[in-house]
Design brief:
One of its GO terms (cellular component) is nucleus. Keywords: Methyltransferase, Nucleus, RNA-binding, S-adenosyl-L-methionine, Transferase, tRNA processing, tRNA-binding. Catalyzes the formation of N(7)-methylguanine at position 46 (m7G46) in tRNA. This protein has a single domain, classed as Vaccinia Virus protein VP39 (Rossmann fold). It contains nine helices and seven strands. Helix 2 links the parallel strand 1 and strand 2. Bound molecules: S-adenosylmethionine. The site of S-adenosylmethionine has 20 residues, from strand 2 and helix 9.
């Protein structure tokens, strides 16, 4: 069917040039990945701040991923640089794939290629028998550690306390991740990223309208596994 998902056989077979035509031939691969990006608020907020990095959203819903695609196309067109300019204008560095991010992440991203991985307001899957559907699990963490470079950051945020505890515990227990406080990240200059994590996404704005809590937990991918 039209809606069948196709996955790259390996990162080398990904045609990034068609996703980022302004960067064609640069051999760059995405450095920021937004998993379950929804309507794309984070990507759109971060893209102009990191003009030299490629950003990729992954979204499983057909209409939602199409919406983000159209949104990016429109932003590229309305912000196009004047004729003759060598700077192609903003939003050339952001794109989206329709994908089930719980499958084949390493088929998209080369080993150690990501410096940031975002899980913003993921679906909570409240019932215990549904916990295996959660986007953070020991198996998936091994994949995330593989595609993240040492020093890279996993950002998680949710309005569901139970899910927050779940993500935090699993990340804490995984030997290649180390908890990093919001203050430490702000001191490193990652404040603008954190601000976008809190409030640039559609779900984050909804939580704000409902005066809900937001639970943040960030982890650094460390070079050598912790011995516990
Ligand atoms: N991160 C966005 C935000 O903060 O507005 C969206 C949050 S929404 C609650 C969760 C999103 O994850 C939905 O758009 C859903 O379709 C997507 N999603 C759920 N499971 C997914 C999967 N396995 N792969 C890719 N996207 C997924």
């Amino acid at each position: 069917s039209d809606h069948a998902l196709v996955y790259p056989a390996s990162p080398e077979t990904m045609d990034w040039d068609s996703h980022y035509p302004a960067f064609a031939g640069s051999a760059k691969t995405p450095e920021f990945a937004d998993v379950g990006c929804g309507f794309g608020g984070l990507l759109i907020a971060l893209a102009p701040m990191f003009p030299d990095k490629l950003l990729l959203g992954m979204e499983i819903r057909v209409q939602v991923s199409q919406y983000v695609q159209d949104r990016i196309t429109a932003l590229r067109a309305t912000n196009a640089a004047p004729e003759g300019s060598t700077d192609p204008g903003p939003y050339q560095n952001v794109s989206i794939v329709r994908a089930n991010s719980m499958k084949f992440m390493p088929n998209y991203f080369p080993k150690h290629s990501l410096s940031a991985l975002f899980f913003l307001f993921p679906d909570p899957h409240f019932k215990s028998r549904k916990h295996k559907a959660r986007i953070i699990s020991p198996t998936l963490l091994a994949e995330y550690a593989y595609i993240l470079r040492p020093g890279g950051i996993v950002y998680t945020i949710t309005d569901v306390k139970d899910l927050h505890e779940w993500m935090k515990t699993h990340l804490e227990e995984f030997p290649l991740f180390e908890y990093v406080s919001e203050e430490a990240l702000r001191e490193e200059g990652k404040g603008p990223i954190l601000d976008a994590v809190y409030s640039s996404t559609e779900e984050g704005k909804k939580v704000e309208r409902n005066a809900g809590d937001k639970w943040l937990a960030c982890f650094r991918r460390i070079e050598v596994a912790r011995v516990s």
